[in-house]
Amino acid sequence: MSNASPQTPQKVLTAVAWPYTNGPRHIGHVAGFGVPSDVFSRYMRMLGHDVLMVSGTDEHGTPILVLADQEGVTPRELVDKYNAVIVQDLTDLGLSYDLFTRTTTANHHAVVQEMFETIRRNGYMVEQTTRGAISPSTGRTLPDRYIEGTCPICGFPEARGDQCDNCGNQLDPTDLIDPRSKINGETPEFIETQHFFLDLPALKDALTVWLDEREASGDWRPNVIKFSQNILEDIRPRAMTRDIDWGIEIPVQGWDTKRFYVWFDAVIGYLSASIEWARRLGDEDRWRDWWNTGAAATGHANPTATPADSAQPTEVGGADEGGTPDRRSEAQKTSEGRVERTDEGGTRHAYFMGKDNIVFHSQIWPAELLAYDGKGARGGEPGPYGDLRLPTEVVSSEFLTMEGKQFSTSRGHVIYVQDVIARYGPDPLRYFISAAGPETQDSNFTWAEFVQRNNSELVAGWGNLVNRTASMIHKKFGEIPAPGPLADVDEKVLQTVADGFGSVGALVGKHRQKAALAEAMRLVGEANKYVSDTEPFKLKEESQQERLATILHTLAQLVSDLNTILAPFLPHAANRVHLVLGGEGEFMPMPRTEEVRDLDDDRPYPIITGDYSATPRWERRPVVVGSPVGKPAPVFVKLDPSVVEEELARLAGQHPSGEVDHRLETDGGHPGDVVPTTPTGPATHADES
Q: Rounded CA gap, 662 and 668, in Å?
């Protein structure tokens, strides 16, 4: 049997894009950042790796102010409301976060301020005067993404003020031809204002070296690496502050009327969430095992309580991955284009997001890390957090549409995660996303395909195999029988499925989850073919009972193996199948919601966390002869074809009876009605700036 378990466990950081607190998550969101990151994390844990999966809700930015005004609440009340909704959505979907937190914690604010101060001290955060956009009617700052116009580079008429989605180039609102507000269509006014800019040109060489290394590794999807390299050609300083009163304060005298740009602080959340996780464990430096390179990984005083207030940051000397001090000057390192590979030393950082967030994860966040580490053209030294690792992989999904149209809350063309789970459970949705989601190209969700895949693949394929195996064992023996001598057909199918640990695992490890699930379901088909070939239901004579026991024992082993292989994709079903075969307890550990208090200001808020130490290994576990097998209940529910008509009627705002679906009217109050958003797929910040 192929054994994919590692000889040397790695530290794996799964960094999951932060959903914005402007409403519940729809299925397009979780198709990009949610399910793929969870499948990967569960598989990595099954290999024996030490996984830290972190994220949280992103709660700053002008859109929160706009929506709070619309709902007649304070920004804090608004983000508290939607934070709780999103936490419940993602917990019910089974996303196995070690910590899912939020950006309004005191811990996050302190980490962001420390990152800023060190980046500024190293010379990569510079003051510049720029022209900022305001609404003539309200006097409020207009976020870049809320300004549209014609792209000056490619002529696309609906380019945004931060980026053109047609040609991919970064823009400023002042670059646009005929700019207009997406909120009310008025022409914005541009006024001079002072901001801190991240000096991206001073980090270009280091970013280039890092991206070239990533390309050479072969770990990135070709479209992601090429896009990331192309945008370096027009790299320029980027403003990291905004004229706004909702967000993280800038720790510089005289800047009390401004706040950090939401994209500056949101990506730092991957680090701050890791620090919060360690603090909640009571092992305050444990996050360093994932984040620090070489000798920097241990031995530092804890800066996490109030890092922004540190009078003297701990000095960290450079070291190679083996821990040998690097005594070259920073200038020497920079001139030689040295950027430490992030996959050395057994550590892997995988970031998951939608394609419109690539630039922030392959340019802005790596630039912040390089600036903090002092590895750009200006040199510098790391702050108290030490030498921080860069991303190993940026795993970007494409967009998901629905019934051939873009998702839009304002038009009611949307289906929320919680609604799908409430009506059909989490596994059919997870299965559809994994089998037909927007992994490398845009894909389309239809209710007809959802029902078809549930019925023909989950129910008729996998569910049928489990049910008839357990039914025959229960009826004939009541327990898993002892096998007799194996025939060639038995050994062949056992080996075929055992080889799936290698073939399926290799594909998941390379972020080819659609191919991995297709291979797993092919193996389900092989097991079903084994039933047809051996026909155990015909073995009724006394002289045939040993052969019957052997076939049913073989089937029990096949179901057990396939349940393990499918467990990262279908963790809820895996627990049910485990019980069907006489197992006890939880097979795949599940996340839980926990109400906690802020570690520094005592505010209450919910988090997602879990104990995943009992995760089963990615390998065959011989079934136990004598394990009781009762009469099984169906693992999956067959959906009536009328579901398609019912759901399309809901989508149209009508019940099948012709009554208006007032639930959709209520959901119409989500921010798409207030501020136009990028309506497609897995964007997490496409509707804020």
A: 10
